[in-house]
């Protein structure tokens, strides 16, 4: 059995630095590691519709934005298949069969779904599609026989649900068809949750505290210069706090010693810079200017690649089309195996057809 990665995002807006450190950067590394036989990145538009049924327009726009974000970060379509969830009918069919293997009370226990219901204030009007999306997510993963699913911690309940479905399917219809996947979590805390430019816990579109991968150099500069630091660090001489100071959190996430050598050689590393800030005598502007240089080193090539792809949208559409066609071909194969195991492949089962003919002739 090959090593297969599947992961995905709901297309509800363009991607930002939080997505970049939390998942995109890792995906590119995994892609280039050469350790995987097949890699899929799914644009989960059908899942996005489960709580955006009345706003397909937003999802539609985001499909291209997100694809451009992927490609500009270094996702290489010759190594990674990017595809659109709703275009794979087999996913619906597989979900439909999985629904018989999951109880309502099991769905009710999913902590991520519970938190999302609260956040969206659904109360008594939870869409059934939303409620059951963990089942559809199990189909996303297993249709491609993925064994590795790089995700954030909030997705662990979906992986657990998927594993349970795989086991239940094995017990009910026979082992060996589906693959039990594992989650691959980000390697460190900052990567799981990059704060917003306002210092709030999370970068999120609705809070307006994001630096987008598609932001211009000018926008990045403006956003960094107005970033939240330490509100008590008023004069340069004042001692400052680095904890909870978003500028330092970003430096934790993005900078390394080589940046100091290049842009701020009076410090050997981030520890020295932090020590000076805490002691007093180091102004926010100097640190912010350094952060801008560090971020630009990462963002400039992304921006350049995006500009290239934007010039050739036909190419981007072809990438999506080819990725989707490939995903469908893999999905069809798995679904045929599933239906055979479930004994609902009537017209492919010659022995069954013979028995029926004999019985009633
Ligand atoms: N639920 C994921 C998110 O909100 C998106 C997603 C859908 C996904 N299907 C998936 C992630 C399958 C990994 C595997 O980010």
CATH fold group of the largest domain = Rossmann fold
Number of domains: 2
Ligands and ions found: tryptophan
Q: Total number of helical segments?
A: 17
Quickly give the CATH architecture of the largest domain: 3-Layer(aba) Sandwich
Helix content: 55-70%
Explain this structure to me?
The protein is mainly α and 361 residues long. The protein has 2 domains: 4-193 and 313-360, HUPs (Rossmann fold, 3-Layer(aba) Sandwich), CATH 3.40.50.620; 205-309, Tyrosyl-Transfer RNA Synthetase, CATH 1.10.240.10. It contains 17 helices and 5 strands. Strands 1-2-3 form a 3-stranded parallel β-sheet. Helix 9 links the parallel strand 4 and strand 5 (182-184). Helix 3 packs across helix 15 (284-311) and helix 4 (89-98) packs parallel to helix 16. The longest helix is centred in the last third of the chain and has 29 residues, at 313-341. The chain is elongated. The model has no long low-confidence stretch (mean pLDDT 95). It binds tryptophan.
Features:
two-stranded parallel sheet, 3-stranded parallel β-sheet, Rossmann fold, 57% helix, 2 domains, binds tryptophan, mainly alpha
SSE topology:
Blueprint: E1 4-9, H1 17-33, E2 38-43, H2 45-49, H3 56-73, E3 81-84, H4 89-98, H5 104-108, H6 111-120, H7 128-131, H8 133-143, E4 148-150, H9 156-173, E5 182-184, H10 189-192, H11 217-225, H12 246-254, H13 257-263, H14 270-279, H15 284-311, H16 313-341, H17 350-360
Parallel strand pairs: 1-2, 2-3, 4-5
This protein binds tryptophan.
């Amino acid at each position: 059995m090959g090593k297969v990665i599947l992961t995905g995002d709901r297309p509800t807006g363009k991607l930002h630095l939080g997505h970049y450190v939390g998942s995109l950067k890792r995906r590119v590394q995994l892609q280039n590691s050469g350790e995987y036989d097949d890699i899929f990145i799914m644009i989960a538009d059908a899942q996005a519709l489960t709580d955006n049924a009345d706003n397909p327009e937003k999802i539609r726009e985001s499909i291209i934005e997100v694809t451009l974000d992927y490609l500009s970060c270094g996702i290489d379509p010759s190594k990674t298949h990017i595809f659109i969830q709703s275009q794979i009918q087999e996913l619906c069919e597989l979900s439909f069969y999985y629904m018989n293997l999951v109880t309502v009370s099991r769905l009710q226990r999913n902590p991520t779904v519970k938190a999302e219901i609260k956040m969206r204030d659904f109360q008594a009007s939870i869409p059934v599609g939303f409620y059951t999306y963990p089942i559809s997510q199990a189909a996303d993963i297993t249709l491609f026989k993925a064994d590795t699913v790089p995700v954030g911690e909030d997705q662990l309940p979906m992986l657990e649900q998927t594993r349970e479905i795989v086991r239940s399917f094995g017990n009910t219809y026979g082992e060996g068809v589906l693959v039990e996947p594992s989650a691959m979590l980000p390697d460190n805390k900052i990567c799981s949750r990059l704060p917003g430019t306002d210092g709030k816990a999370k970068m999120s579109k609705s809070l307006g505290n994001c630096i987008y991968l598609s932001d211009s150099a000018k926008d990045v500069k403006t956003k960094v210069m107005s970033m939240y630091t330490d509100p008590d660090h008023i004069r340069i001489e004042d001692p400052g706090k680095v904890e909870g100071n978003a500028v330092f959190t970003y430096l934790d996430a993005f900078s390394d010693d080589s940046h100091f050598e290049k842009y701020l050689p009076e410090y050997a590393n981030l520890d020295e810079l932090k020590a000076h800030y805490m002691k007093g005598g180091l102004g926010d502007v100097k640190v912010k200017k350094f952060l801008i240089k560090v971020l630009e080193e990462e963002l400039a090539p992304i921006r350049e690649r995006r500009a290239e792809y934007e010039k050739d949208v036909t190419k981007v559409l072809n990438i999506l089309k080819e990725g989707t066609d490939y995903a469908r071909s893999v999905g069809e194969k798995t679904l045929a195996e599933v239906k055979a195991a479930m004994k609902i492949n009537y017209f492919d089962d010659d022995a069954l057809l013979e028995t029926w003919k004999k019985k009633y002739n």
